[in-house]
Structures are given as C-alpha cells and as structure tokens.
Design brief:
With about 400 residues, the protein is of the alpha+beta class. It has one domain: Orthogonal Bundle (Cytochrome p450). Helix content is about 50%, strand content about 10%. The protein is built from 16 helices and ten strands. The strands form three sheets. Strands 1-2-8-5-3 form a five-stranded mixed sheet. Strands 4-10-9 form a three-stranded antiparallel sheet. α4 crosses α10. The chain starts with 9 loop residues before the first helix and ends with a strand.
C-alpha cells in the first residue's frame, strides 16, 4: 500500500484527498499496518459495507474478545467502554434495534421541527455577538456553542452546567482517533466517570420531576414491555451530545474555510443564486467532518478479489468515498448547486445518523444567519488543523466582519 496514507501526519490531515485518489486507483482494499486495518476507499464499497450485516460496530454480541482473536481492553479503561458500549453507535441487533426504537420515540421529526425556533434564535444571538465584536473565532463563538446549546436544551441540562459538556465530549472523542495514547485514554476515562455521574443525578431528578425534555422522554419511553436501563439512558445522552455536535461544528468551520477559498461560489450563495440546503449538502460532501468509520468483520467477506477474514477490522474512508469520481462528476470541484449528491457523511444502514435532520437544521440556521447578516465576513488568518484525522477539523477560524 502507498505509504502516503499517514493519518498521524499534519500534511496528510491538512489535505488527504490526493492520497485517496491514489488509493482508489490502486485497488478496492489496502492493508494498512499502522492501524492493522483494511482501508476501503470507493463509494460503492463503503456504501455497501455500511449495510452489510457481516460487519459490525462491535463483535461482543457474538464472540468473546478471545474467540475473536482480540486482546480485551485494560481494566482501567472500563468506565469508557461501559459508557461507549451501551450507546447506539457501538451496538448491534438485537440491542441496537431495541434501543433505537425506544430513542426514536423521543427523537421524532416533530421534536426536531419544534426545535426550529430555538435553533434559529440561538444562531441569531451568536451571530449578533460576533457582529458586535467585529469578528472573532467562528469556531468558538458560533460553530461550537450552537449545537452544544441545542443538545443541552433538548436533554434539559440546566444552563449553569452547560460549560461542562464540551470538555467532557472532547476528552471522550479522543478515543475515536487511531491508536490513542495512554494520556488520551486517561482523560477519556475521567470524563466518562464524571459525565456518567452527572447524568445519573439528573436522571434521578427527572424521575421525580418529569419535564418536557428528552431525558424525561427517555425515562418514559416504553415499547412492547421494553424500557431503557439507566446505563442505556446515560450512554444515549452522551452519544447525542458527542455525535450531535462534533460533525456540526466541523462542517461549519470546514465549510466556511472552503467558501473563503471559493469566493465566486460564496458570492453566488450570498446573492441567493443557490439554495442554501443544496449548498449545505455539498459542503458536507466536499470536506467530510468524519473521515473514517470502522467496522469489525464478523464473517469472512470478499472485496475485489481480496478475502478479509473474520476478526479483521475495516476502515471505511468516508472522505475518499465522497470524492469518488465513479459516483460524483468532477468530485474535487466544489459545486454548491450539485443536485445529485448521495454523500455518505451521515452513514447508511442501521447506524445511519439519527440526528441528521437536526444537524441539517443547525447548519442551515448558522450559515443562513452569517450569509444574510455578515455579507463582509472574511478570513482574518490562515487556519490550522487540530491534527485529529478521524474527526477532522480546524483549531479555530478567525474572521472579521
């Protein structure tokens, strides 16, 4: 495999797309020794494997660690794995089916539609602040506070406690990068313990005093004799926060960084020549916030003549799939009016992102406010990438208005 694939290299993280083009040209799968995974770069394969039940986010519903040829995680990491392992993202049927059915009852299109005035109000307030200051860090002042506030509002987390959420989330999400080090693991474990304890206390309050929030709805969710356990509720709330803002934050700042580098398209968007929802879909495709999604191989599979045995792990390269010329004409060209746009930024199959409608609502609200009310918005300083590859975003995006 081409050694240019290097997810720990700042140069690669800054622009992985030429390497992806090489990977697609060289074949359908590539063994990467650095993470001991098979890389899958083509849109058709990634899309099919996301729906293939021979792969799973976990293997523990069918095998022990030893049966699967894997070393169990260290005991000291248990708080993270208990928290992560009881959430929708890392479960398979039948538990995934049961929990998603129950959570969906509290996460209906009507719930999202009801949030629209709140999302638009919060976006307007954040843009007000940015305009009053004549600019600032778009990430810290608009992109990040909006989805965190929305999820906190949905869950019913008191305003005074909301400053705790983003640091906890950032520490936990560090474990989703490739080969996290001991320091990252320790921070994730501490955050898992603190966040879980906080939510258990809040769930206790909502049991006694139900409200209109999602935690109250999760407590009440009941279907065919099933209820969520307290651990499942805690894990669901953490997942909603983590998944509910990481992608939105990075799509916002990566998207604006993209627009600043394509001034003619930004001008067309500001004039209203291009529909905002269509443009948001293209920004989601063009610079994918989640570059890689991993799956365990539960039964032998074959891709392009290569047999991938049970016990292996595949790395589905979302960023590459979204730039595949076999599916997208001129994929490296930003086309905000692109109509046929089956990007896989929100996944596919049973793990398709439950919060995709909310993410689209938040993105449309924040981009819309900035386009309307900050027509002079421009870059103040060349940004730097955080260094994370799986969850890929900028450290900050300094702008003037």
């Amino acid at each position: 495999m081409d050694a240019a694939f290097d997810p720990w290299s700042p140069a690669f993280v800054a622009n992985p797309y030429p390497v992806y083009a090489d990977l697609r040209a060289q074949g359908r799968t590539h063994w990467f020794e650095g993470s001991r995974q098979y890389l899958v770069p083509h849109h058709a394969d990634v899309s099919a494997l996301l729906r293939d039940r021979r792969l799973g986010r976990t293997y523990l519903h069918r095998f022990t660690h030893e049966e699967f040829g894997r070393t169990p995680p260290p005991p000291e990491h248990e708080p993270f794995h208990v928290l992560n392992g009881n959430g929708l993202l890392d479960l398979e049927a039948p538990d995934h089916t049961r929990i998603r059915r129950l959570v969906s009852k509290a996460f209906t299109p009507r719930t999202v539609e009801r949030l629209k005035p709140t999302v638009e109000r919060l976006a307007a307030e954040l843009v007000d602040g940015l305009l009053a200051r004549g600019g600032g860090d778009l990430l810290g002042e608009v992109a990040e506070p909006l989805p965190v506030a929305v999820i906190a509002e949905m869950l019913g987390i008191p305003a005074a406690d909301r400053h705790l959420l983003r640091p906890w989330s950032a520490a936990i999400c560090g474990m989703f990068e490739l080969n996290p080090d001991d320091g990252t693991a320790r921070r994730a474990v501490t955050a898992s313990e603190e966040f879980s304890a906080y939510l258990r206390q809040l769930i206790g309050v909502r049991r006694r005093q139900p409200g209109e929030d999602m935690i109250s709805a999760l407590i009440a969710a009941y279907d065919e004799g099933d209820r969520l356990t307290e651990q499942e509720m805690v894990s669901t709330c953490v997942l909603l926060l983590n998944a509910g803002h990481e992608a939105t934050v990075n799509t916002t700042v990566n998207g604006w960084w993209t627009l600043f580098r394509h001034p003619e398209q930004l001008a067309a968007l500001r004039r209203g020549d291009i529909g905002l929802s269509t443009a948001v879909e293209e920004l989601l495709r063009y610079d994918t916030p989640l570059q890689m999604f991993e799956r365990w191989v539960l039964d032998d599979i074959e891709i392009g003549g290569t047999t991938i045995p049970r016990g292996s792990e595949v790395a589905l390269l979302f960023g590459s799939a979204n730039r595949d010329p076999a599916r997208f004409p001129e994929p490296d060209r930003l086309d905000l009016a692109r109509a046929d746009n089956p990007h896989i930024t929100f996944g596919a199959g049973i793990h398709y992102c439950l919060g995709a409608p909310l993410a689209r609502l938040e993105l449309t609200a924040s981009f819309g406010e900035l386009l309307r009310r900050a027509p002079g918005l421009r870059l103040a300083k060349e940004p730097e990438w955080t260094g994370g590859y799986v969850i890929r975003g900028l450290r900050e995006l300094l702008v003037t208005t």
